[in-house]
Here is the input.
Amino acid sequence: MVNLARMQFALTAGLHFLFVALTLGLVTLMVILQTRALLARDPQRKAQLYRMTRFWGQLYVINYAVGIATGLVMEFQFGLNWSGLSRVTGDVFGAPLAMETLIAFFLESTLLGMWIFGWGRINRVVHTLLLWGVAITAYLSAFWVMVANSFLQNPVGYTQDAGGRYRLTDFGALLGNPNLGFALAHTVTASLVIGGLVMAGISCWHLFRRTTEFDFFVRSLRLGLLTATIASTLVIGFGFAQFSYLDNQPTKLQGATTTATAQEFARRFGGAPGDYLPPGGVQVSYGFMILVGFGLWSVLIGLSALLAGNLIVKARPLLAAVIALVPLPFLAVLLGWIVREMGRQPWAVYGLLRTKDAVSNQSSGVLTASLIAATALLGGLAILDWFLLTRAARRGPGDEFLPAAEVKA
Amino acid sequence: MTTLWYLLLGLLNAFYFALAGTDYGVGMLLPTVRTGRRDALNALGPFFLANQVWVVAAVGVLFGAFPGLEGELFSALYPLVFAVALALAAVMAAVLLRSRQLGAAEDRPVGLDRVIVAASVVIVMGWGMVLGNLLIGRPLAADGSVAGPGGMFGWFPLLAGATLTALCAYNGAVFLAWRGGDRAGATGRAKELWPVATAAVIFTTVAGLFADGIRDNAGPKAPIAVAGLIGMVGLLAVSRLVVYRPLASWLLSAVAAALPVLIVGLLLYPNVLVSTVDPAASLTVTDGVAGGHTLRLLNSVALPWLVVVLLVQAASWMIFGRARPGPDRAQAVRYW
Here is the structure.
């Protein structure tokens, strides 16, 4: 039963993570584009930057659909499938999640709607500020979700009351959780690699096909590739910085105290020490992620150097190489997610609540049916979204938000 | 503080049913709009996303301020809440994506329209059935388990679901009469739906007052139900009278759509989910509330922020509420 609930959550959270990473990366690049458009003096350059904002903006909004859908299902899943989590630790874990919905996501969606329908209707400065608002609230969302996740990884700031429930006592400790800062920075910079490389890859596809929109896609390629290169350097730095608190979860990766900790868990919670080690795939994923990360980083540095004098645009094999790189950051992000989340197993809240004790009291029939329904809907949605995304990307810039006749500056 | 957060939860739910109820009403009426479906969806325009996220905020407050309720409540109503959650995901994605298959000037039915229609019905029907089940109570045992889905699909929950569906459909029609492309057609639709919605509200409330299980749970508070009934019927009646002033008509019907959740909450208070097998196992507001530290935190951070969100949403209605997108306003963004 716990496996059915876990599969459903892994599917939802995995999809959410992949699509939201692209959302977060793209919105950052859009803020750069629209702010530059707002500030540009030269009317031609200004118009071009606005067109770029609209084109990448449409891809962003298409991608947003899966993020919002999976995020919503996940919010309900906590109560539906993991009622143990809300019953036992909800007082601590629920606080940052409530903050995420009220402070960040609620406003983000409101502002995004206004931004989409504000083209040509709202004052340009305000319209640009709306996008800033969307981006800031998206980052706030990531922050609060990581606060909640860090509690699962390394529970802090709580006491256990007489009824066995965990109560929040120190919110500052949640925010100061050593498992939060570098992990958040690692995730955000990974999102920038994804956003940057997707932008660069799509631009290269158009340049490879000898597009008439040469200037449009060369500008996009430069922005995307440079962002991805700088961000990938930071990702690696923030990744290694996380070694500093690996001791908080001795069983995650094989280390000096792994066996002793597993034995300690077995003594306190029953079972064999082997029950308290994560699946073997974690260690493999970890090694593979580092390999992909370093490989990507070194190639990106080389490609960025070739931006000088537009060398990269003149060499068609290089354009093809950039396109081929696009799946890699997605793969690395997925592997990193496996290390963090699967590496936490068998715990839902590390050292406090086992995953099998957090699952709701539902029959396996109900859980099987819900798993099938969720897989069909969310999987189908992801495929449809990917199809529409690639089609819009291939189509190139056009009339994204305004009827063609109205597309001005 | 517990009461404050329970009131706030009620408020978020009320806004959700008033505003998103309009989204679903428009969604349900899409099949009646053969040409100009984009006009209908773009009448919702920037409000669609803003309306939808009230439910995200409500569930967030449920999880943050009442962690003991969220798990029990959702588990006890599993199939219904799960269906609603999937349908919410489906309707949001379908509205965001449906017009991406079309050029800016094109307006024809697409496959995803069916998803919008079906998901809108499932959501409203599902929430109505959740409210119906809350009134009846569930066989909740002391250990938090619920014996089977029996009764969840009984006649009263189905009736409650159908009633909320009728209310939202009327709400969607008067909204389209205000902002849609074919306003005359929408006004006609609203006139057709009004008697259905009014009759459903009256019939369900009266049936509920005389149903055994509900009388036990809410018996002493029957006056609340009667007052609620008079309120809803009154609002609907005035809304119908001023149907040629569509903005006023819609505002009135939106308030009517928000009332059922508030009435159910008041009738059951301080219970949230009554156990039909063991009175001691019933869930009350105080059973599920978060600790003082968590609530103080939500008070100092989330509460002021909620005011900010309200102001932004109000600004959005001020900016986009005036100009009516439609054939006469070609320059308006047509994104949905």
Summary: The first strand of chain A starts at residue 158 and ends at 160. Chain A is about 75% helix and 5% strand. Chain A touches chain B through 79 residues (CB under 8 Å).
